[in-house]
């Protein structure tokens, strides 16, 4: 397994992260356990901030909290000077409870409810990323009833769709549930409407072209399309866009063969493209905002499991089951995502067998890794799966009423609990048995 950040194998042959031996972490916190390498998260934050500072452009780096939204993470991101992107009242509440400065919160989503909009306006958030005309009217109505003016970016689809492992395509994005299409004129119409509305301050446009992107071409093409659009809006409507938000999607290395660029390379490609394509539109270059999620937290996360049972099917394969699975990491089941693993308590031993790692849910699709080489695995061994920091805890479920794991931050030989493991009580905390049914049970 590739060792990310501060991960290393110590003299005892154990995996160590942030100076903490995972066998000790297991003894203290149990498994499954999400272990977050705090130093690596901070390093990624700084890579973004430094790269943008070096560009000389105005900027905000908004951490896309959907990747991993907990209060400690919001605090850490605030300390590092980033902004925050939220998509629901739950993510907004988490940020506010953590004391994240509201003016650096951006609110996304294709179906913000009136309650969510009210909550965000009352909190005084920095910007709404408006997705459609229904939202535009709703936002204006609520802002005017509260006699405030709110900042708005319009989410646009520039006709660029990019995915890792696929070539970027310049068509296809028109058919998206998100945003106003530039190509078919709806973005232009939305700019006209937004700029006409009292109580809305139109700052500019937003685009997000995909996820786990390993190349710069898609971002550069998006910048070019948005610059052409900005020029048209300036020339025909005399409207300026002081802000252009280019979303997230910067790729990370999950497994051998993944070839992400350095953060500094993505940022330089974007800021250079902005300098080239926005030159001469309006009096100054726009501020550039981005929204990295996965690339801030993804490789900082490791999930630690305890091995339980196994099943060998002669001539077919050996299944090794761990005490978690699709409930703590739904990505292999959802997206066929690939992960690497190592035997964390015997990390220096030579690989002896090829096994497939199964979860404990009642579902055949609950597999974490197909065909991984490991030393001879035994019950009680610790299995570490790398690169689980993004979209694991945030997408975890209670399927089979399995309790969600604890999350810890580790750094400099110390560990801190940042989310406690769910208890059996948590599993039933919202359950209500209507009295008529409860009575029946008693009289039986
Ligand atoms: N901004 C917007 C508007 C987004 O929709 C997203 C991700 C991001 C930023 C952050 O993208 P990132 O830098 O993390 O790639 N559950 C999937 C990923 C869904 C991403 C949704 N939007 C997964 O586990 O791969």
TrEMBL record:
Top-level EC class: lyase
Pathway stated in the Swiss-Prot or TrEMBL entry: Amino-acid biosynthesis; L-lysine biosynthesis via DAP pathway; L-lysine from DL-2,6-diaminopimelate: step 1/1
Modified residues (N6-(pyridoxal phosphate)lysine): 66
One function term, GO molecular function aspect: pyridoxal phosphate binding
GO BP terms in the entry: lysine biosynthetic process via diaminopimelate
Active site residues according to the UniProt entry: 362 (proton donor)
Residue ranges of every copy of the Orn/DAP/Arg decarboxylase 2 N-terminal domain listed in the record: 40-297
Parts of the chain that traverse the membrane: none
Cofactor: pyridoxal 5'-phosphate
Described purpose of this protein according to its UniProt entry: Specifically catalyzes the decarboxylation of meso-diaminopimelate (meso-DAP) to L-lysine.
Protein family: Belongs to the Orn/Lys/Arg decarboxylase class-II family. LysA subfamily.
Identification of the protein by name: Diaminopimelate decarboxylase
Organism of origin: Paenibacillus typhae
Species classification: Bacteria, Bacillati, Bacillota, Bacilli, Bacillales
